């Protein structure tokens, strides 16, 4: 199998999305090199997405901590029940 790369531009998935959303905007940006007219809105959107990503990561970490705490609580309750059974049954367990 020939492993040679084809020469030419690489088209990213986001670029395909831009093109499918608005061909004219894609052409003005990619072909004509004109900057976007809504740079401020794009920066705000990017900042919001970054903030959301940080909150999502924090949520995942907190969930892991909560599951560890729940596991410890379940083990503690089970150990307490075993100790009570041991005490009430006169050391049989």
The overall average pLDDT, rounded, is 88
Shape: elongated
The assigned structural class equals: mainly alpha
Number of E-state strands: 0
Task: Classify the beta-strand content into a percent band.
Answer: under 5%
Distance between the termini: 68 Å
Give the % helix: over 70%
Instruction: Give the number of domains.
Output: 1
What is the overall number of helices?
Answer: 3
> What does the largest sheet look like?
none
Rg estimate, integer Å: 29 Å
In short:
The chain is an all-alpha fold and 93 residues long. The protein has one domain.
How would you describe this protein?
The chain is mainly α. The chain has one domain. Helix content is 73%, strand content 0%. The protein has 3 helices and no strands. The termini are far apart. The model has no long low-confidence stretch (mean pLDDT 88).
Write the layout of secondary structure elements.
Blueprint lengths: L12 H9 L1 H9 L7 H50 L5
Helix pairs in contact: 1-2
Features:
3 helices; mainly alpha; 93 residues
């Amino acid at each position: 199998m020939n492993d040679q790369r084809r020469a030419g531009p690489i088209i990213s998935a986001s670029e395909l999305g831009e093109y499918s959303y608005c061909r004219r905007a894609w052409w003005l940006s990619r072909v004509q090199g004109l900057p976007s007219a809504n740079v401020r809105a794009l920066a705000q959107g990017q900042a919001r997405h970054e903030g959301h990503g940080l909150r999502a990561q924090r949520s995942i970490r907190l969930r892991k901590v909560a599951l560890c705490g729940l596991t410890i609580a379940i083990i503690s309750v089970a150990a307490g029940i075993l100790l009570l059974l041991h005490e009430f049954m006169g050391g049989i367990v």
